[in-house]
Amino acid sequence: MEAYASKPIIFLLITIIGFIQFLFILRFLFEVTRVSYNNPVSQLVVKATNPALLLFRTIPLYIGRFDLMIIILITALTILKIYIAQGFISLGYFDINGIFVEYSLSGNFIAGLGWAIREVLNILWYAVIIGVIGSWLTAYNSHPLFSLIDEICDPLYKPIRNILPDMSGIDLSPIILLVVLNLLYLIILPAIAYLAENV
């Protein structure tokens, strides 16, 4: 009976933490891609994330355009979400004998960072898909959500468009970006998982 009662609570906790994590990932993407904060959607995200960031930004941690505090918060929320989803069992992996091995403290953080990168890549992947679909629907092109997605994706398209020759109005940059995101997914995440296992 206790397991039955706990499932809705766990689901609710994961949903709430996942939504908060999503907001912080968007805020991170806004800062990296230099999105205009005149958009109503970006204003909503900034207002929602500012209280926590102001609390944690007493010591500024920046590397170029990357705000390390947002990365730390996203990673911590990701670890918490996985920890709750796994029934409050520590993060870990199964060895070749099928035995569950818990990560060390630093391994937990590295694994959480890997899962957070996976979430960011997933959000970018869906942003590209939604942006492409939005470009086909001219009635919705002026919607703030589609213009925000364009602002997030355009800086990622720009280097691809600079390399590609002129295609007479055909834009292949979204397809190439999707391929690049999938390659990053296949290259970065296994390396991070291996690193988390061996620290």
Structure write-up:
This protein is mainly alpha-helical and 199 residues long. The protein has one domain. Helix content is 72%, strand content 5%. It has a two-stranded antiparallel sheet with strand order 1-2. Strands 3-4 form a two-stranded antiparallel sheet. Helix 1 packs antiparallel against helix 3 and helix 4 packs across helix 5. The radius of gyration is 19 Å and the shape is globular. The termini are far apart.
Secondary-structure element pattern, one letter each: HHEEHEEHHH
Low-confidence spans: pLDDT under 50, at least 5 residues? none
Could you say how many structural domains there are in total?
1
Counting DSSP H or I runs of 4 or more residues, the number of helices is 6
Number of β-strand runs: 4
Binned, the helix content reads over 70%
Average pLDDT metric: 83
Distance between the termini: 39 Å
Q: What is the percentage of strand-forming residues?
A: 5-15%
Radius of gyration: 19 Å
